[in-house]
Amino acid sequence: MYPDGLASPYRDRFAAAAAQRYASLGIERADPDRPTKIATLNAAAFGAPAVLFCYLDRTMGPGQWADVGMYLQTVMLLLRAEGLHSCPQVMWTVYRETVSRAVGAEDGLVLFCGVSVGFEKEGVPRLRTGRADMTETVSFIGR
Ligand SMILES: Cc1cc2nc3c(=O)[nH]c(=O)nc-3n(C[C@H](O)[C@H](O)[C@H](O)COP(=O)(O)O)c2cc1C
């Protein structure tokens, strides 16, 4: 899902976000069954009743992968406009052969990610994972 040897600060941010998200779901870092529990939650689409699977043509390059990310962001905003919530899950790519068989994806398509879709469960403590400060991620040049 991520490049081998993912460097800092990306690796640290990824680990921190995952720790927050899964701790909020009752899975602590020290839990020996953590990987299995995480995989199970993801594969259950976090309880959502529907999953979109987003593919692109295998011949496409980095620019088109970026296009697909922007496209999916728009889909997620449109879902909000309909009162729905969603969660992109790159984890589905680990099971890409099974997913492609299940959805009948044509040869030549590559799975980008799944997006779980459903209505927010009321009454569950809402976690907003931390974000790096804007000064770490954005450079403003000029006035
Ligand atoms: C492209 C993409 C793939 C993701 N894949 C996963 C995933 O496989 N499993 C997971 O738990 N979170 C995954 N995430 C993170 C969550 O979908 C979500 O964005 C994150 O928890 C932040 O949620 P928040 O904005 O409500 O704080 C992914 C995010 C993106 C943008």
TrEMBL record:
SUPFAM superfamilies: FMN-dependent nitroreductase-like (SSF55469)
InterPro entries in UniProt: Nitroreductase (IPR029479), Nitroreductase-like (IPR000415)
Pfam family, any one: Nitroreductase
Residue ranges of every copy of the Nitroreductase domain listed in the record: 37-118
Residue stretches spanning the membrane: none
A single MF term (Gene Ontology): oxidoreductase activity
Name of this protein: Nitroreductase family protein
